[in-house]
Amino acid sequence: MNPERWQRVTQLLDEAIALSDSERSPYLDHACGADSELRREVESLLSSHQRAGTGFLKSPAITLQKGAQPAPLRVGRRIGAFQIVEEVGQGGMGEVFRAVRADGHYTKEVAIKLVRGGFDTAFVLERFRTERQILATLDHPNIARLLDGGTTEDGIPYLVMELIEGTRIDSFCDERKLSISQRLQLFLQVCAAVQYAHQRLVIHRDIKPGNILVTKEGVPKLLDFGIAKILDPAAETEATLARPMTPEYASPEQIRGEPITTASDVYSLGVVLYQLLTGRSPYRAGAATPHELSVAIAETEPQRASMVVAQPNTLLPDTGDTKGSADLLSSAREGSPAKLRRRLLGDLDNILLMALRKEPQRRYGSVQQFAEDISRHLEGLPITASKGSWRYRAGKFVTRNKVAVTATAAVILALLGGIVMTTRQVRIARAERARAENHFNDIRKLANSLIFDVNDSMADTPGNTNVRKLLLDRAVGYLDKLAQDAGGNVDLQRELAWGYQRLAVVQGSGAESNLGQVSAAEISNRKAMALFEAVAKANPNSTSDQLNLAMLHRMLGASDIYYPGGRPEIDKAISITDRLIQSDGTNLKVKGERALEYQLLGYSQDFAGDRARAVESIRQFLAMEQEILRSNPDYPHIGQGVAKAMIEFGNQLAHAGFLDEAHRQAEAGTEAYEALEKQGTRPDIIRELARSRILLGQISLMRGDVTPAETNFNLAHEAVARLSRLDPENLQLQWDVVSAEFEQGRLLALSGHARDASAHMQPGIRMYDRKLEDDSGPGLGLLHAWLGEIQFATHNYAEALRSYQKSAEFIEKDAQYDDARCGIAADYVRIGDVLMKLDRWQDAAAAYNKALQKADLSFSLAHKDVPAFYPIADAHAGLGDLSMAMARRSRDPNQRARYWNEACSSYLQSIDTWHQISQPARFSPSHFPAGDPRSVSKRLAECRAQPQSATR
Fold this sequence. Notes:
Residues 52-72, 230-243, 314-324, 388-406 and 408-426 have low confidence and may be disordered. Helix 20 runs antiparallel to helix 21 (518-538) and helix 28 runs antiparallel to helix 29. The chain starts with a helix and ends in an 8-residue tail after the last helix. The protein is globular, with a radius of gyration of 37 Å. The protein folds into six domains: 3-58; 71-162, Phosphorylase Kinase, domain 1, CATH 3.30.200; 166-394, Transferase(Phosphotransferase), domain 1; 554-636, no CATH class; 654-750; 761-944, Tetratricopeptide repeat domain (Serine Threonine Protein Phosphatase 5, Tetratricopeptide repeat). It is built from 39 helices and eleven strands. The strands form three sheets. Strands 1-2-3-4-6-5 form a six-stranded antiparallel beta sheet. Strands 7-9-10 form a three-stranded antiparallel beta sheet. The chain is mainly α.
């Protein structure tokens, strides 16, 4: 009996064993048909099974050739240039091993595939060689590559292949809880691989999740062409007698033993996609045994995906997943069964059903057509799998923003009718033109409603960030197309500009709830800027159009406020409002825009180290907001604007070192926000109140008031954590949560609970590690600085040194702004402190001097840069400590006296610098760790007490 015949016998035997005695005879009648010899073989084995069990059936029914080796004996064996390390998998006729290159030329891990022991018949060896030939023709990024091949000394062919370290595609999607759209994008790569094989006349014939591995980089790889077939270009179909396949993913024609074409792979891909999207088999009901599964595949129509996800789960046997919960399945896809059902309803139902049609000729004509329908669905275009009803096409028409199609079609019909009746043609054309204009206006109204009414109203409700993004995407798409059709329509350009601006806010504005897509937000803002500039140029005397342009310049400046590129945008905005104040100075909108420009100007001056000017700019920001409130208390959001200005003024006063006045302003601003919160629960008010409490807590902690600081940090954390749970896709809220946790951790560190503080730093570090935008330097640097402070306090000096060095490295990326300069200086001070503890005195001295160089005392004195005074004072104190240590170790009296004098001089310089700070704080206004002037005074007194030491 040849191997293919034996495979057929064992398949029927396994299916028959699963049946009851009464079911077996009808099943064999159907399965064996007129092949009486096949039936006798199966019945003979059934009889043996009943008498003696089934262990003997696991052995192959062919003679082992001389030289065939069981798998364990192959481990350690050398094949070609490679040595086998371990077995990593088995198939029907092959075994796969991990191997390493052993000839010393270079190091590389590969996968080696060999014929399984006992299966090395001439037929199987020829099939193995066929697989090698197939793989040699396939070079695609989503197909496991053939690297080498040959024949062992005992005549067994082998393949050397790319070693794929990956996860089954279904497990990969579920473990990472990929959305339906993400699963479809991943599946499209698999389709590309199969289409590539088909173009080279190769049918895979065994597509299933186990043969699709996804690497840790998210790249799917199609494996195992062991039962693939190279098509004869001159033939229309291909059929095999043995029907090699995995039944759960086999097509009806494979089950029935009919000719095999590329449509069989389309069907198998359809089953894989069905399982990826639903977590279920298309044939859940009545498919408990292999025979029932075969009947279901051949005769039963699959259930609609959108219907099956609401039913109890029975996964394919191949997966081994028995969770059986619709909630669990949907949570790994779209969040809830209802959302998952809505996502699958319609296009995806139709795509899957077309791929799974029983008749090969009624399926997609190729894998490429299958993939194109998926791509069209993702882009919101009509798919070929739908019947193409007017309603369906009209829906896609609106989504794709194709205006005037109806008018064009009507005009064509009118032209045709005009051959018969010219007068009727004119009448129809006029009617259709009017209809097109109405349609144009309807879409315009819809877009504006989405941008200004629906979006703005949804902004007050948590959990809508993704929905707002979707609505704005659609609305901007509508307006974009209308703008193309309408030429230079200024009003339409203005509306489109506002649409892009609103979209940018939701994508990545730091001021509101957003998705953290900073680069996308900048692109949208740039598009808005080009449109606003065109409108402002067309209407030079329009205050509102000029204000819109100033607003966009200000917003672009805000997005780059930490960097030199931000200041020119702010200056452009100010130059526009300068002109508007001259021409329309009583306009409250002009004053409101100017107030916000003062706010950003203050930020820019602060980051440049010009603290005194920054205080004055923020003071003007507050004064203008208060002026608007006095003149028009009903001006939109003016109460919120005044509260924010109080908070920002308090923040800037703290940066300048005026902690008592800063505390009063921050307290007043917090009380104003608390009053606003009582009037409603808008997320932006809750967020800004939380931020004000964090600032108030920071100032309290800088003043040494631990209890009120702890209360404010806890209240802030509780508020933003609650919002984040309601809106889990909102990246801004996630940052709010880790910011509040950081403050809680810093409080613990300053209160002597260093070990407890470390856990509060880790969420922020993990968030920055996941951040894609390259602007994480200052924040991540600050986190590592305080992590180093915690490690230093627990005497973990080696780890502390690494943390301080990381902090300096991250902040160096953004050293063009002043707070970064102060942060780097603070890090070098702490690096010097650690090196002192490790007795690396020379390195410590270099670190302290580096801190002094970075902080730049002359610049700091000229600009009253209080944050820079902290690392300067600490660096001098560190140099004093170093000189004192050297004095204590020196045995030469003259040298010791010189060291004592140097220590006293350094301590005096430190004290002089501390005197520049009116209210020394427990950490610098830049939020980096700082020393204590009282401790320096004690060390100076100790130094002066030494004989021959310097005195003032």
